[in-house]
Amino acid sequence: MKRREFIALLGSATVALSFAARAEKAKPVIAILGSGAADAGSSKQLMSMLDTSMREVGLTQGQDYVFETRWADSDASRFSPLAAELLAGHPSAVVVSTILAAIDVQKLSRTVPIVGTGLNAPVATGLAASLAHPGGNITGVASMGEDIQLKLFEMMRETLPGLRRVMVITNPTNPSLRPMLDLLTSQAAKEGLAIDAVSVSAPAITACSRCRSRSSRGPWRCARRPSGTSLSPLCRQADFSRIPAIPRRPSRASHAC
Questions:
Q1: Domains of the chain
Q2: Which residues, including other chains, have CB under 8 Å from residue 68's CB and lie 6 or more apart?
Q3: pLDDT tens for residues 205-244?
Q4: What's the N-to-C CA distance of the chain in angstroms?
Q5: Could you please report the per-residue DSSP string of 58-103?
Q6: For residue 66, what are the β-bridge partners?
Q7: pTM, whole model, 2 decimals?
């Protein structure tokens, strides 16, 4: 789904409710279940994008609707209780940016629309029936991470023709890990490459320690960063060890790689 379609989707769901709400002097609520901290750059960017997008379809925050936000502070275990808090307020829709948050919201409600801003492998994880017709109460934008990681793989081969082994840093708690890692491993086998998957669900300092102990085995490739872990420390450690590091989403590495 393109950005303009996403805007129309979220906006149209609110427009109908907005007119009815005005008559009752109430405002529809759009719930935001964020994965990071409220003051994180990515969180501020998300809120700014949503506010701007709603204005593009003629809706103004505070006048036509209100945002109700909850932030998990990079702790996936908080998604479920925070989702329950948001759903208790009877929102018109819940906006999520991670597959774990979407799954926890859907476990609690099969009727409130869930809008993803960029979810990994929603079909492979069983969250959606298909990208064209997701079904249920889930919709939004897929990250197309499967295609992106294969393209990054291709770029690594072109940049490092002598490449033989790739370390993939993964988050074992993320449901999208297995289908994405399977796809990467299959492609690597076809090209005669070895994949060394490192499962890290610890904070950045521990993640760096674990990866450093295996850093001699090959370039780092961040297929899915550990929950609660910034890519910047990992990339800085890779740079210190003179090992090429390629994050799947470069913007989230704060240009550290």
A1: 3-142 (3.40.50.2300), 145-253 (3.40.50.2300)
A2: 29, 30, 31, 32, 86, 89, 91
A3: 444 555 555 554 555 444 444 444 455 556 566 665 666 6
A4: 29
A5: T--BTTTBEEEEEE-TT-GGGHHHHHHHHHHT--SEEEESSHHHHH
A6: 29
A7: 0.70
